[in-house]
């Protein structure tokens, strides 16, 4: 699920974990906010698309597709896209955007996915994994539904940012949660994310059977310089999100025997 703002612009507040991350309650406002803003439209999505490269004809699962902007961009580049999200309201917006071009499924990424082994060439997970305390089961499922040689392209809150915004600062080497309120369109909503050290991220990928291909800290789209001059400077000089490309080894099918 894509974010509407970077962590550095959010104010850490004591949110109620039981009420946090309820996308069904603010789907319309969230989708409108993220459609053409700096962080999503000119940074996170272009970076994901650049890492994906030529996707024509590739079967791609958009894990945490939200209202479908990344799915639409991949579809427009010739990919055969399937989307999953845990929010029914977000999926309704995605259906409105995508029509029948993209198969959409209500699914929680912490549970088994409703797809066959090796069903996809790529999985994209844009700003999703930081909602999960334990990446293990999710990455195992993503690996299962990827063919040998398939890729997971993922973005998360940069662990350095999530560490430095907390006061007092947590144990960097522990996996800890942090809560804050997002405010957009006059609506304040509680959110809860999980921060883990960089080495724990890479170890989670390798433990799930992936090999690391790319770690990226990209620059925003240059077109944003004139549209968002103040935000562009901050986004191009400070850490914000961290992007990964990890691969299932081509011989993975044989190695599991």
Task: Give a description of the structure.
The chain is of the alpha/beta class and 257 residues long. The protein is 33% helix and 26% strand. The protein contains ten helices and ten strands. The chain has helices at 27-34, 38-52, 69-76, 88-98, 136-145, 159-164, 198-207, 224-227, 229-237, 252-255, and strands at 11-12, 59-63, 80-85, 103-106, 120-126, 146-157, 176-184, 187-195, 211-216, 241-247. The protein is globular, with a radius of gyration of 17 Å. Mean pLDDT is 90; it is low at 3-15.
Quick structural overview:
The protein is α/β, with parallel strands linked by helices and 257 residues long. It has helices spanning 27-34, 38-52, 69-76, 88-98, 136-145, 159-164, 198-207, 224-227, 229-237, 252-255, and strands spanning 11-12, 59-63, 80-85, 103-106, 120-126, 146-157, 176-184, 187-195, 211-216, 241-247. It has ten helices and ten strands.
């Amino acid at each position: 699920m894509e974010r509407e703002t970077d962590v550095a612009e959010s104010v850490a507040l004591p949110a109620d974990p039981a009420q946090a991350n309820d996308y069904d309650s603010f789907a319309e406002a969230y989708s409108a906010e993220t459609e053409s803003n700096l962080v999503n439209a000119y940074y996170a999505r272009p970076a994901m698309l650049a890492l994906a490269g030529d996707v024509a004809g590739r079967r791609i699962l958009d894990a945490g597709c939200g209202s479908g902007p990344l799915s639409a961009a991949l579809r427009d580049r010739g990919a055969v896209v399937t989307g999953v999200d845990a929010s029914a309201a977000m999926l309704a917006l995605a259906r409105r955007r995508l029509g029948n071009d993209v198969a959409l499924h209500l699914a929680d990424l912490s549970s088994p996915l409703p797809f066959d082994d090796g069903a996809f060439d790529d999985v994209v997970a844009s700003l999703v994994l930081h909602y999960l305390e334990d990446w293990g089961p999710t990455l195992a499922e993503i690996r299962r539904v990827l063919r040998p040689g398939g890729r997971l392209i993922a973005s998360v809150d940069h662990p350095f940012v999530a560490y430095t915004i907390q006061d007092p600062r947590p144990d960097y080497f522990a996996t800890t949660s942090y809560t804050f309120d997002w405010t957009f369109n006059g609506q304040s909503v509680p959110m809860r994310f999980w921060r883990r050290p960089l080495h724990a991220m890479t170890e989670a990928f390798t433990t799930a059977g992936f090999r690391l291909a790319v770690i990226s800290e990209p620059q925003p789209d240059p077109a944003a310089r004139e549209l968002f001059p103040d935000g562009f400077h901050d986004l191009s000089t400070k850490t914000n999100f961290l992007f990964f490309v990890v691969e299932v080894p081509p011989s993975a099918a044989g190695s599991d025997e």
